[in-house]
Amino acid sequence: MASKRTPIHSNFRPSNLSSSKWETKGTKPLPDPSSVKKIFLMVLLFGCKKVMFTPTNVLRGYALALFLISVIGKQMPIPKTFFSRSDNFLNLYFVKLGWLWTLIVAFPFILLTSFVYCSGKRDRILKHLARLVVATGFWFFLTKFFVYIESNVGSCIGREPSKEISKLNKIDCISGKHFWRGFDISGHTFLLIYSMLILIEETKVIQGWETIEDFIRNEEHTRQSKSQSNGPLSNLSAKDFECVKISYSKFTSYIRGLFIGITALVIIWNVMLISTMIYFHDVSEKLISGIIAVFSWFITYKVWFAYPHVLPYAPGEGDFKYFKDTASIVPPPRKKRNNIVNEKGERIPTFLGMPLYGLQTQKSTQSNGSRS
């Protein structure tokens, strides 16, 4: 007669299932299994993060490349293309309305993300949206200033040189069908660079966004089991925690969609910036506008908004902290690889830090021993 088999699961479960310790602690809940759609979305978001959060050294090389492209475009004959026309549809419907597109994607993104990490508190959400008000003020004032400089720093040039024509202002010069030559600081260059820097700063809050789901799951389990919690959400009241839980589940899909749309807009901005560097404006006009754009971004996001609890709030400043600005983290120096050599001084190939030949020798020894 066959002997009675012991259930398999008995080897992996504690013998005393009715103990109070087991019932109180339980196990932490696991996330739902990933579907093909979710995996594809994660891959797409990973690619978008690679585009948006470029390392600092790469950005420096990119800025240098833009400067060289600008010089080459001015000194060498470049063939006319779709981008050399100022009436191409990307320039007419995107760059001409560039700040409007920036607000269309940035406003709902800031609104939804701040609603989650501010637990739905209206006053704090408004303090995050105030960053767009400040940025719009910088854009409006500086673009008007560029127009003022171009209108007052220049001269009118007619078909025949004349002192009377050269004294005309810009409006009378153009109305008289003459040509106005002024110092035209590139407003497009300023807009494209400033908009990209703002969108990159605002979307940094999506780094680590998936960890909020783990924080919610663990905190919910901890509160149900009435055990002590020291997680990022432990200081939230029951009302605030419920708001974070519901808003995260409700808004995350929209936030991810907006992030993908922002990435697409930044790609368009890069394409149009390169075409501007090649075909339009003098090098000095583009260089000055780029410096002003970087300075405007730095003085607001790195100086003004960097102070905690000062209006406006910095991106991600809320009721709990869930992400780190990886752009400001200096990576540790790479360790030199330790070469493994044999008795003859020859280098041994390794895999994950272990010698391949040693593993093969060990396996062969074990197999021979088992056979004997």
Can you tell me about this structure?
The chain is mainly alpha-helical and 372 residues long. Helix content is 60%, strand content 3%. It is built from 13 helices and four strands. The strands form two sheets. Strands 1-2 form a two-stranded antiparallel sheet. Strands 3-4 form a two-stranded antiparallel sheet. Helix 5 packs antiparallel against helix 6, helix 5 runs parallel beside helix 9 and helix 9 packs antiparallel against helix 11. The radius of gyration is 30 Å and the shape is elongated. It is a multi-pass membrane protein. It holds the Pfam family FIT. This is Fat storage-inducing transmembrane protein. It is found in: Endoplasmic reticulum membrane.
Strand order of the largest sheet: 1-2
The total of helices stands at: 13
Count of β-strands: 4
Mean residue pLDDT = 79
Measure the end-to-end span: 34 Å
Strand content: under 5%
Structural class: mainly alpha
- Backbone CA Rg: 30 Å
Q: Give the biggest beta sheet.
A: 2 strands, antiparallel
Spans of at least 5 consecutive residues whose pLDDT stays below 50 are 8-25, 327-332, 359-368
- What is the N-to-C succession of helices and strands? HHHHHHEHHEHHHHEEH
Helix content: 55-70%
General shape: elongated
GO molecular function, one term: coenzyme A diphosphatase activity
Region (Disordered): 1-30
Protein name: Fat storage-inducing transmembrane protein
Transmembrane segments: 59-78, 98-117, 129-149, 258-280, 287-307
